[in-house]
Write a structure and sequence with these properties.
Blueprint (H helix, E strand, L loop, with lengths): L9 E4 L1 H5 L9 H14 L3 E3 L7 H12 L5 E7 L2 H10 L3 E7 L2 H8 L3 H17 L3 E7 L6 H13 L4 E5 L7 H12 L5 E5 L7 H10 L4 E4 L13 H11 L11 H12 L16 E2 L2 H9 L17 E2 L7 H10 L6 H18 L5 H14 L1
Helix pairs in contact: 2-11, 3-4, 6-7, 8-9, 9-10
The chain binds zinc ion.
Amino acid sequence: MDTPKNQQIVIDDTTLRDGEQTAGVVFTLAEKKRIARMLDEIGVGELECGIPAMGRNEQASIRALVDMGLAARLITWNRAVIADIRASLATGVRAVDISLSVSDIHIQRKLGKSRRWVKEQLKVALGFAKQHDLYVSVGAEDASRADLDFLVELLRIAEQEGADRFRFCDTLGILDPFSTFDKVKYLADRSHLDLEVHTHNDLGMATANALAGIRAGARFVNTTVNGLGERAGNAPLEEVVMALKHACGIDLKLDTSRLVEVSKLVGEASGRPVSEWKAVVGEKVFSHESGLHADGVLKFPGNYEGYDPGEVGLSRYLVLGKHSGRHGLQERLGKLGLVLENSRLDSFLERVRTAAQAAKRPLNDGDLLQLFQQQIRVA
Ligand SMILES: [Zn+2]
């Protein structure tokens, strides 16, 4: 299968590979299938779905995903060794990521090898994969710490040997968006091969770095749902998609209204539910409490919302707390079918603020109803 042609930028979501690699996370096959199905329905172009070399169980689950006949391309992760690629072939996938360590630190201190060895290994593994007509992404592990000219050498070999793209990995999440841009641009200026960026969130910059890589010319980007992944995680699918749309003006035309749904699914399956204030998919990220903001958003949502909450499957929520104002209160009362004449609104607002302060938390519908009934009795 060729690269989806109607998409300039292609998401390669690796929730089922790098996401599952998170310490302590395991998905059942049923969960993998549900996650894959939903990502496919949302319109994600490619799913990295496992590591066949891990053994029979992993191979069987990848085979089961292949048998689902999804529109998304399935790709597996492999070391640059023939045995790994053979294991991938046995699962029925037609695309592989062939990963090699490319920094001198990894080459010397992890592998005990040389740059020459890495180049040879690439030729052998890539040659084998292409003999079998596989679509190949060459994954440059720890590329962020590698010598850029060595990366260019590898890129040229990859191109000559028929690779389909080259993955630049900030394996340790140590870059910032500016250095990511510079490095990816350096490679893009020296090769015709499609580039892919794989970023990690160790310094809180996975999304920013993914965007920087795309701006520098990468056409493929790795994500995971909720940013699940090794250590501090990967670039979250939901953030990359929405940031591309609203910060960069690049609409991938995914069904973003299901981002919260897929976030919940992966949160449950991984045993790592997202916080209420998680960017984009947190249940409460469209909450407004302060009188000024609530009033502003009720007059015109664009005053205090960068995009419509419905775009990601959320809804606006007006919190009643110590900073609330009249308009927010009226709106919340209205939602409960309660009406209070204007003359009594100020005194009721005072009671609401006092109650929230005493409870040290915002008031829920039950609290509000109770206060309202008390107010009616007082009156
Ligand atoms: Zn990774």
